Amino acid sequence: MVYDQLKTMFKTVIFYLVCCLAMRVGSQELQKVDTTDVYYVRMSGDSVLMKSIELEDVYLFGKLEFDSKEEKLRYYILRRKTLKVYPYAKLAAERLVELNDSIALITKKRKQKKYTKKVQKYIEGEFSDELKKLTRTEGQILVKLIHRQTGDTAFDLVKNLRSGWRAFWYNTTASAFNISLKEEFVPTEVHEDYLIEDILQRAFASDRLERQKSVLDYDYATLVNKWKPGKK
User: Fold this and answer.
1) Which of 38, 144, 177, 220 is the most buried (most CB within 10 A)?
2) Tens digits of residue pLDDT in 101-120
């Protein structure tokens, strides 16, 4: 009888040991799942599973501040001109990407040149009527924005699409109206370029303009800190 009692007690101890071990292992497995489990997301219309979703940068804009009434007026005039010409710069960047993608598929240089000339004439026709209506300052802003969107100056784009002589001629003609096709967009160094960037970011956030990322390397938040009123 004592043997049976000891046997029963032994079975009970073993049972509890097994239960404790199971609970311990279970908790460890649960902890492991919590720290290593990965959730995947499938976007609508896409067959690829992703671990994360890339979101656009979101900026909280402060109230516009100016050192003087003259600067305030200058900003609003610049805003009107920038909003007017930005769509042309965006379109130029899109056409350039399309052109480069198409040329990459053409193996013969002669056919590449022929295709480039055809597209360039199309772009000129698409732009010319509207561009003729731009003022000198609007034209210069457009030149800067083309550099912002493509990474190339307007001069270099003409040079690459046509020839160095044509680029020189275009630049000389533009110079007669005090417009340089070699002008770059440098918001880190030029205050007016920063103001243009500020205008664009606010317009993107309010859906007034369709966002197209700049190919240039700069950070808008850093620019805001650098160009705060009184720091120029």
Assistant:
1) 144
2) 787 788 888 887 787 777 76
Q: Give whole-number Cα distances, 172 to 81, 177, 179, 200, in Å.
A: 23, 9, 9, 29
What is the distance between the alpha carbons of residues 193 and 182, in angstroms, rounded to a whole number? 15
Q: H/E/C letters for each residue in 82-135?
A: HHHHHHHHHHHHHHHHHHHHHHHCCCCHHHHHHHHHHHHHHHHHHHHHHHCCCC
Residue with tokens 């003609």: 173
Higher pLDDT, 163 or 217: 217
49: which 2 tokens? 């599973």
Closest CA to 146 of 190, 194, 184: 184
Residue type for 14, please? I
Going by C-alpha positions, the residue among 160, 157, 162, 189 that lies closest to residue 88 is: 157
Query: Which residues on adjacent β-strands are paired with residue 41?
Result: 50
For the chain, what is the radius of gyration of the CA atoms? 31
Query: Hey, what are 201's tokens?
Result: 């970011």
Torsions phi, psi for 42 (to 5 deg)? -115, 120
Instruction: Write down the domain spans for the chain.
Output: 2-50, 69-226
- DSSP type of residue 147: H
DSSP state of 50: E
